[in-house]
Structures are given as structure tokens and as C-alpha cells.
Predict the structure.
Amino acid sequence: MKYDNGADFIFEQDKSLYWLNFLILWSLTIWVAFKKFLLGNRIKTNTFWFDGVSRLAREVKENAFSWRALDIIYNLDPPLGNNLEDKMTRYWNKLLNVQAVRNRLRLIKKIMISQIRKFHKNGFNSIRVLSIASGSAQGVIEAIRILKEEGIMVEVMLLDIDQSALEHAKLLAKKANVLERCQFVNKSTTDLELVTNNFKPHFVELVGFLEYRPFEKAVRLLSRIRNILEPGGVLAVSQIMPNPERFFLTVVVNWPMIYRSKKEFIDLITKAGFKEENFQIIQEPLGIHSLAICSK
């Protein structure tokens, strides 16, 4: 497993005050867990220091699991004011997991651009890209904008069950001047084979979805993706790794996920039918998010 910090993309890796932050996060986690034990679902504010004082932190908590929470994290321009809310928003913006999710965005863009350039170099005049559980597809849209500027033709299908995510994706695609390259499909992964019947992808992006799929369901989904890929096609799939902030995310941010080790991630991919010699796993610099690049 290797780290990637290529010159084309600047990755975040601020670990200053790590141990102080670790103590603060665990103190808040224990306090909120105790409150939830006593009061259950009657809690509206988990802690003043997170969703109490910071409007943006509260919005992330209220939209956990959704594209909107990621949209806030991806595009947060930390306020510069000296009031308590602004200071706390800047503090939460430096959580390792917050930095890591933006690193994941940069890394998937870099991988997608690199893989599509290879297809183009090998004589493919039009490359089909499928983003599953795409959300607002910010990384995909930014990547195809760059590729369009290079004269590389990419057709994109964005598949998501949340229509509001696709509507936001349309706005991003229009702003990036790539709307004509995109299809927006409001369906779930259940309909994967149906929607790709006439759209055999060369490249599939699946980011931030396995974290909510139990092992056997994740294996079945990856196996189905492998079946719909064109021969020689590539799947780029992400997985969050166990890390010291996971309990804070679960208890305080109300954002539980399935964390998998490197071994579990590899096991999942191989059981889906990808041969170990045909995939590699790359981590963003903080080691929290991993991306597997799997060739059919």
C-alpha cells in the first residue's frame, strides 16, 4: 500500500496538535455517549462545542450520509473571523477525517484522469465513465472538464437514488461546461445492469459507498460491477480505514460507517473476482481513505 502526494495535486496532512486534538475528541465522545445513554433520541444538540456553536458543523451532522455533507466539507472556505463560531468551524475543518475526505476527492480525480488518458492513448476515441452512487459527482465533473480541455471525449453516466444530488450535479456540470457529456440517472444499484445495458463502461467510480455495505453485499456489488465493465475496464473504489477519530464521527457527528483494514479491503476485492495481480491500493497521505484501482 503506497501513499500518493503527486505534484499535480496538493494534499492536506496537517497533524499539528494531534495529541491535544485526540484528548479533546475523546472527551467530547465520552460526554455525548453518556448524554445519549441518559436521554436517548431527545438530544437535539450533541455538544455545544460541535453542533451547538458551529452552524456548518451542525449542517454536516444533520446531513450525514448525504451528498450535502460532503459538499460542505469539499468546498468549505473557512471563515476568518475571530468570533467563537468561526474559530470552532476552522478547528473542525482541520480534523484528520475532514482533511482526508478532501484528499480522497483529489486522489480519485487524479486516478480517473490518469486512467482515461491511458484509454485515449490506446486508441479509444470515446471513453464511457460510470459513477455509482455519484452524489453531486464533483470529482468526476472536475476531471472530465480537464479531459475535455485536452480534447479527450468522455461520456459520463451519473447514477444515484437521490434526485437532489443529481440536480446539484447538473448545476456543477453546467458550470464546468460539460453538461452535454453527462447522463443523470435517478435509480439505485439494484438497476445497475438495466441502466448499463447500452452503456458498457470503460471506467467505473465507486467512492464513499462501501462504507455502508456489509461485507457480502459489498462483494456482490463489486462482482456485478466487474461483469458490466468492458474487457480491460477499470474500477476505482474507495474504503475508509480504521482511525482514531472513528468513534467521534459515530457518536458526535452521528455518522457511523463500516471501517475495514487493508486485509479486509483486499479480501473483499478478491472475492468479487478481481485477481490480486490486477489491482493496486493507493492511500491518501493521512492513511484514512484508500482507493483500489482494479482492472478487469
In short: The radius of gyration is 20 Å.
